[in-house]
TrEMBL record:
Residues 350-407 form the PucR C-terminal helix-turn-helix domain. Pfam families: HTH_30 (PF13556), RsbRD_N (PF14361). Transmembrane segments: none annotated. Residues 25-164 form the RsbT co-antagonist protein RsbRD N-terminal domain. It comes from Amycolatopsis orientalis (Nocardia orientalis). It comes from the Bacteria. Coiled coil: none annotated. This is Transcriptional regulator.
Length: 414
C-alpha cells in the first residue's frame, strides 16, 4: 500500500479499519460459510483445504481490503500477485473461473452485510464513500484473479496440447505410443480411423475487408469442436485451415468396422462441414495404433486421387476410388494411358465436356452441367473421337477414356 492519509471512515461510531481488524478471524469464518453455502463447488472441496488454503486466501483478501479502507489506496502488486497465485491453484483444481470470481464478490457482500446495520445517519457520507472504494477494490482485484486463473489454464492447455501432439507424432511415425499416451492421460483405442482432409474456404475468408487468417482460424475452431463433440474419445489432430490429418478413436477393431460405422462417419463429416461453413473432402482408412502410418499414407493417397479426379466433397475410402487409385500407381502403363489424351492438351472445353460426360453419362445431363446446348455436346464428343481415336459414346471406349483421365490426373499431381 502507498502511505496515503487515513480517510477516517467510521461506521457504528468506530474507525472502520480498526473495527474490521478486530473481528478479522471471525469475519473470515463468516465469509467462508457464506461462500460454501452459496457455491456448491466450494462445498465439495476437502475440509482440510477449506480450513487451510481457502481460509488463508480469505484472510489475506480481507487484510488487503482493510488496508484499502485504511489508506484509500488499492492493493500493491505483491498483494495482487498473491491473489493471482491463489487463482492459479483454483484453475489446477478445475473450479470454473466464474465461480472463483463469484467467491470474491460474495466475500465483499458478507463484509458489507456485517457493517451496514450499524451505520448511523451521520455516517451516510462515509457509507457512500466506502461503497465507492469497494468498487475500486474489486475493479483492481477481479482482473488480477482472472489473469492468474487464465494464465494457469493456458499453461495447462499448452501442456495438454503438447502431450497430445507427442502421442500423435509417435503414432504417425510408427513409434511406440503407450508411454506418451500414459503421460497425456490417454488410453490407446483398439482402432483409429485416420482421416486425411482437404478443407475449402469459408465465405468470410474471401470477403472484402475481412482478415482471412482470422476467418480461417474461426472456421478451423468450429470444425474441431464439432468433430470432438461427435466422436467418443480423444481426437488427435494436426489440422490447418486448409486441411490435414485427424485420428478418430474407435472401440471396434479395424477389420470389424461395419457399414453402419462408415455411414455414421459420413454423417459426422457432413455435420462438421456444415458447422465449419466450408466444403470438406476427406479420405479415411482404419488401423490399429501400430499400423497408423500405413493408414495415414493410404488416406492421403485416396484423398489425392479423389480430389484429382474432381470428386465432390464428402468422405472417400479406397473402395470408392479403386480404379483411379490403381491407375495412379507409377509404371509404363500409366504413362501410356496419359498420352492417349495429349491431343486434347490446351483445349479445356473438350476436356471438361469429356469429364462431365463420363461422370453424368448423358448428353442432356452433360449439356446442363457445362451450360451449353446438347448439340454442342454432340459436336465436342465427335471432336474428341477425331483427335484421340476414342469415342466417348462407344461402350468399349468408355473404360479406356476413364482410365486415361485418371492417369492424366495422376501425372499432373506428380
Amino acid at each position: 500500500m502507498t502511505a496515503d492519509k487515513d480517510p477516517g471512515f467510521r461506521i457504528g461510531g468506530r474507525p472502520l479499519a480498526e473495527r474490521l481488524t478486530e473481528v478479522l478471524p471471525s469475519l473470515a469464518k463468516t465469509v467462508l460459510a457464506e461462500i460454501v453455502s452459496r457455491i456448491p463447488e466450494y462445498g465439495h472441496l476437502p475440509a482440510e483445504e477449506l480450513s487451510g488454503d481457502i481460509t488463508h486466501v480469505i484472510e489475506q483478501n480481507l487484510r488487503s481490503f482493510i488496508d484499502t479502507l485504511r489508506t484509500g489506496a488499492t492493493p500493491t502488486q505483491r498483494e495482487l500477485d498473491f491473489l493471482r497465485e491463489s487463482a492459479a491453484r483454483r484453475a489446477e483444481e478445475g473450479i470454473p473461473i466464474d465461480i472463483v470470481l463469484t467467491a470474491y464478490h460474495i466475500g465483499i457482500q458478507a463484509v458489507w452485510a456485517s457493517l451496514t446495520p450499524d451505520a448511523r445517519p451521520e455516517e451516510v457520507a462515509d457509507v457512500l464513500a466506502v461503497n465507492a472504494l469497494t468498487l475500486r477494490y474489486l475493479e483492481v482485484v477481479t482482473p488480477a484473479v482472472g489473469a492468474g486463473y487464465l494464465d494457469e489454464r493456458q499453461t495447462m492447455f499448452d501442456d495438454e496440447r503438447s502431450a497430445r501432439h507427442t502421442v500423435l507424432s509417435a503414432l504417425l511415425d510408427g513409434e511406440p505410443a503407450d508411454v506418451a499416451a500414459g503421460q497425456a492421460g490417454l488410453r490407446l483405442p483398439p482402432c483409429y480411423i485416420v482421416l486425411a482432409a482437404s478443407i475449402g474456404a469459408h465465405p468470410d475468408e474471401e470477403a472484402n475487408g475481412v482478415d482471412p487468417l482470422v476467418a480461417g482460424r474461426r472456421k478451423l475452431r468450429r470444425l474441431r469442436v464439432e468433430l470432438e463433440r461427435q466422436i467418443r474419445g480423444t481426437v488427435l489432430t494436426s489440422l490447418t485451415p486448409e486441411g490435414g490429418i485427424a485420428l478418430l478413436p474407435h472401440e471396434t477393431a479395424a477389420e470389424e468396422l461395419s457399414t453402419g460405422d462408415w455411414s455414421r462417419l459420413e454423417r459426422i463429416l457432413a455435420d462438421v462441414a456444415r458447422t465449419a461453413g466450408a466444403e470438406v473432402t476427406a479420405a479415411a482408412a482404419a488401423a490399429g495404433p501400430s499400423h497408423v502410418p500405413a493408414a495415414a499414407k493410404l488416406a492421403q493417397d485416396v484423398l489425392a486421387v479423389a480430389t484429382g479426379a474432381g470428386r465432390p466433397p464428402g468422405l472417400y475410402r479406397l473402395d470408392d476410388v479403386l480404379l483411379e487409385y490403381q491407375l495412379s500407381r507409377p509404371g509404363p502403363a500409366l504413362d501410356r494411358l496419359a498420352t492417349r489424351l495429349e491431343p486434347l492438351n490446351g483445349n479445356e472445353e473438350l476436356l471438361q465436356t469429356l469429364e462431365t460426360f463420363l461422370r453424368h453419362g448423358g448428353r442432356r445431363q452433360t449439356a446442363a452441367a457445362v451450360g451449353v446446348h446438347p448439340n454442342t455436346v454432340d459436336y465436342r464428343l465427335r471432336r474428341i473421337a477425331e483427335l484421340t481415336g476414342l469415342d466417348p459414346t462407344r461402350l468399349e471406349h468408355i473404360a479406356l477414356l476413364s482410365a486415361a483421365l485418371a492417369a492424366r490426373s495422376a501425372a499432373a499431381r506428380d
